[in-house]
């Protein structure tokens, strides 16, 4: 027999289950340290404040302020994290939402003057819905006209969006006037609830609840839905996602609209928090927003949330203990965090 025609036995192969490729992917551990930093800041302020009721009042006030700032900044961090757009015109949507709220609540004076909490909440939620719709619609036009020509050009984005904010402020002055407009709280949301000797303002509790709902909705949308998966995949490899038949440009426009709508919602909450609105309010809070997203990590939703809580607590504690220090306390907080973690509390890996 010719040995050349005899087939040699195939080499033994390991079963598929033994292949290294079949090994489970290790799960990344969640980093709890930034969350513990919030608790450490709150507990560290207790001995400095001295009085437990005063500390509790300051803490709830700081959390409420942090929640409002988070709602405003979440739209900005969403746009930057998913679209890589530095939108310095974000403040115009804040002011727009606040001024729309003055018109809506002014037209529902019978509802806001009622002693019924339900009627007050209907008026407030109606103002929020209209403000979000108007801010989202203007955000759509802003993206199409102002932002789209400068995608991928950060310096031009900064300049052109700042110009857009200035123009937006002037348009607000034309419609509502340049004067300060009062935005009082509805009757049932005024005053405080007493927990022992601590006074907790009713409106601040509402702000905490709304902020928690916004955080949960954003995390669920981005991490648990197909739309969130497509958006995150489009950020990483846009061409591949488009080759699968998905229109990433439409998704990104939707992201910008949602970010603008969240700014409008935050503008309503901030206006009620301050109980007055001015056309420049968006520009005034812009610096605080960028401090928050830098502390949290550029593009990180959870980092934005933790950064906003830290900023809110720091502002309230220092405002009570040392008012002069409060003017630059948040900048000091940002410097301290960046010295510890240069990319922020929850850095996004592709930044």
Your description of this structure?
By secondary structure, the chain is mainly alpha-helical. Helices cover 70% and strands 3% of the residues. The chain contains 14 helices and four strands. The protein has helices at 33-49, 52-83, 90-107, 109-112, 117-147, 154-176, 202-224, 226-236, 238-243, 248-274, 281-296, 301-321, 323-326, 329-340, and strands spanning 181-182, 192-195, 198-201, 276-277. The strands form two sheets. It has a two-stranded antiparallel ribbon with strand order 1-4. A two-stranded antiparallel sheet has the order 2-3. Helix 2 packs antiparallel against helix 10 (248-274). The longest helix has 32 residues, at 52-83. The chain is globular and about 60 Å long. Residues 1-14 and 16-22 have low confidence and may be disordered.
Produce a short descriptive summary:
By secondary structure, this protein is mainly α. Helix content is about 70%, strand content about 5%.
Counting helices, strands and paired strands, the structural category is: mainly alpha
Number of helices: 14
Oligomeric nature of the chains = single chain
Q: Please bin the fraction of helical residues.
A: 55-70%
Order of helices and strands: HHHHHHEEEHHHHEHHHH
Number-wise, the strands total 4
Shape: globular
Q: Approximately how much beta-strand content do the residues carry?
A: under 5%
Low-pLDDT sequence parts: 1-14, 16-22
Strand order of the largest sheet: 1-4
Radius of gyration: 25 Å
Tell me the major beta sheet. 2 strands, antiparallel
Mean pLDDT: 86
The N- and C-terminal alpha carbons lie at a distance of: 67 Å
